[in-house]
Amino acid sequence: MKLLLHSCCGPCTTFPLHLFRAEGFLVGGLFFNPNIYPEEEGEKRWQTYADWANRAGLNARRVRMPYRDWVQAVSKPGKCRECYYVRLGHTAKVAKEEGYDCFSTTLLVSPYQDHQGIVLAMERASREHGIPYVCRDLRRGYLRSRQMARGNHMYMQKYCGCEFSMGGEG
Ligand code: SF4
Q1: CA of 24 to the centre of ligand 1 (A)
Q2: Any atom of ligand 1 within 6 Å of the Cβ of 83
Q3: What are the tens digits of pLDDT across the range 67-106?
Q4: Nearest ligand 1 atom to alpha carbon 79
Q5: Strand partners, 61
Q6: Per residue, what are the HEC states of the chain?
Q7: Which atom of ligand 1 is nearest to 164's Cα?
Q8: Which ligand 1 atom lies nearest to the CA of residue 74?
Q9: CATH code for the structural domain at 2-165
Q10: From the CB of 53, is ligand 1 less than 6 Å away?
Q11: From ligand 1's centre to the CA of 68, what distance in Å?
Q12: Domain range annotation of the chain
């Protein structure tokens, strides 16, 4: 079964990729994170992810969207949940267009994210684009993902992504 895995960053991709492959999925990677501010930070996270994908034999690519468009898309109550939907809605769309069987996201590995909000965004994306999502509570692998990232000398960011989250943890 072909699964398109939305990746928020390299460190968070380590454990989910390992797990989904262990479950037998043929995984492709998509880096679509227009929420990351500033531009240089987005480049740094993309390069870290792309380098890891290359080493892990993951076919991965990046899709871009201007930060100002993302700000407009999430400028309503429940900003983080809209942010999840912007990213996962597009992931579901790409998965459908490119013949994947399902999609998922590495956001599920972080205990610092709104897990329920991510699941709701996956459900909505799945419904709107007509493709199943795969949900696992990957938070049990969070520490393992940090160990794998450190072991591979990966850049580890200190905040979730947008300008409003600078100073917090992602
Ligand atoms: S804090 Fe994170 S999830 Fe919430 S809007 Fe900002 S980048 Fe998106």
Answers
A1: 31
A2: yes
A3: 999 999 998 888 999 999 999 999 999 999 999 999 999 9
A4: 5
A5: 30
A6: CEEEEECCCCHHHHHHHHHHHHCCCEEEEEECCCCCCCHHHHHHHHHHHHHHHHHHCCEEEECCCCHHHHHHHCCCCCHHHHHHHHHHHHHHHHHHHCCCCEEEEHHHHCCCCCHHHHHHHHHHHHHHHCCCECCCCHHHHHHHHHHHHHHCCCCCCCCCCCHHHCCCCC
A7: 6
A8: 5
A9: 3.40.50.620
A10: no
A11: 14
A12: 2-165
Token reading at 23: 């479950």
Q: Which of 6, 74, 75, 80 is the best mutation target for the ligand 1 pocket, counting ligand atoms within 8 Å of the beta carbon and taking the most?
A: 80
Which of 15, 2, 39 has the alpha carbon at shortest distance from 107? 15
Contact 156, 31 (CB under 8 A): no
134-159: per-residue pLDDT in tens?
999 999 999 999 999 999 999 999 99
Calpha distance 128→141 (Å, rounded)? 29
Take atom 2 of ligand 1 and give the residue whose Cα is closest: 160
Is 161 touching ligand 1 by the criterion CB < 6 Å?
Answer: yes
Residue 64 has which token pair?
């871009």
